[in-house]
Amino acid sequence: MGRCGRISLTLVLLAGLLASVGATYATASQSGATGTFTLSADLPVRYPPTTCPPGTPSSIDCFARTGSEIIRGLGNVTEAYPYLVDGSPAGCGGDEVRVLPATVRLSVTGKGEIELRLDGSGCLARVPPNPVEGVETFTVTGGSGKYVGASGGGTIRHVSFGPPDWGGRDTWSGTLVVPGLEFDLTAPVVTGARNKTVRAHRGKKRVRFKYTVSARDAVDGARPVDCRPKSGSWFRVGRTRVRCSAADTSGNESKATFIVVVKRAR
Fold it and tell me: Residue 161's domain spans which residues?
């Protein structure tokens, strides 16, 4: 091959290498630029009656709806919003109500808040003692802390059982998008949960036994482990199953079990 041919081949290979590196960088930048989270959560809620804002029409009943749950990928989440029910909505039947639009705040412990806008419901049947059930669409309008710039949307299905407990459930289904945030969906790794064999002292039917089980999370580092029975407990002669669990701050949980076998002294 002549000198010109070698130069041409070198340029082609170099161009291909640069294109490959550029494509890899662009893909990595794009995947890291926006985090997309599939929101699927079922929260038990309470909604005791509350005082309506001044100027609220007399046909509207006001409630303060709140709930809390651990949502995998987010963490410990508390929701709060005004639950406003129009008892005489235009265009609905005499035994129907309508839930009005509202702003919801989802507070994630140690991370920030997500703000959502509910669009309100259609006509919903209210025939006590049956619960009031409805579906609304929601739009993510922003956030704070780790959730600055949040967007997305979906639906919320709510069930309200009425007095005397004023309890219900909110089921969220949709998508949450946050620029630059990588949602953590990986549970901690539990180590040390291995079967153990120990011997009781002669004439004894149980023995106090200590063991070590630990957990480490890729994001949060070392995490506490809850085991039952606890290390240092009394274990009777025979087989006892020990159940352990560890969770991270994003609501991911790992579980492990092992057997402690206590044998009689020879």
Answer: 35-179
